[in-house]
Amino acid sequence: MKRALKTLASFTFLILWLLLSSAFSFQLITVDEARRPDDPRKYTFLAGPVPEPRIRVVGPAKTTTSPFNMIIELRPYGGAKINLNTLQVRYLKDPHVDLVPRIQKFIDKTGRTVVIKIEDAEAPPGKHRILFQVEDSNEQLGRTVLELTVVDSK
């Protein structure tokens, strides 16, 4: 009887730990997605003659451990506004993984600058490339690629 109670207590603790740990982290990239082949294309963007929205990676650093905090700022130019209907966030694998549905709840649209702020984002160790692309109300396109290396924290 004591052994059964100990097993039940251990199992209950494990379930609670799994529930609580998943409540405090966010799976940005899964292991299965990371195993896909890389998109072989090189993404190089040239600035056009008309100023475009600026996409600024505030964090994470290029090399980080998981979990990490991700902050991306989308800044319009002049009097334009960011058109969130055009937002694309793609994990550059073959095929691409659309991350917009996952990150939707982390988008702060309250100010002129739109901020994507994800605390405790999880990604497996390895090199990851994420494309951010958005248009403004003047239909100018801004894009950048976040190149991120996640190292094992051990």
Structural commentary:
This protein is of the alpha+beta class and 154 residues long. The protein has one domain (27-151): Immunoglobulins (Immunoglobulin-like), CATH 2.60.40. It is built from three helices and ten strands; from the N terminus they run αβαβββββαββββ. The chain has helices at residues 2-23, 31-35, 100-103, and strands at residues 26-27, 54-59, 63-65, 68-75, 82-91, 97-98, 107-108, 114-122, 126-136, 141-151. The strands form two sheets. Strands 1, 2, 4, 7 and 8 form a five-stranded mixed sheet that branches. A five-stranded mixed sheet has the order 3-10-9-5-6. Strand 7 and strand 8 form a beta hairpin. The longest helix is centred in the first third of the chain and has 22 residues, at 2-23.
Number of helical segments with 4 or more residues: 3
* Strand segment count: 10
- Determine the CATH topology: Immunoglobulin-like
Beta fraction of the residues?
35-45%
Q: Indicate the CATH architecture.
A: Sandwich
Shape: globular
Mind sketching the topology for me?
Elements: H1 2-23, E1 26-27, H2 31-35, E2 54-59, E3 63-65, E4 68-75, E5 82-91, E6 97-98, H3 100-103, E7 107-108, E8 114-122, E9 126-136, E10 141-151
Parallel strand pairs: 1-8, 3-10
Antiparallel strand pairs: 2-4, 4-8, 5-6, 5-9, 7-8, 9-10
Features:
3 helices; 154 residues; alpha+beta; 5-stranded mixed sheet; globular
Quick overview of this protein structure:
The chain is of the alpha+beta class.
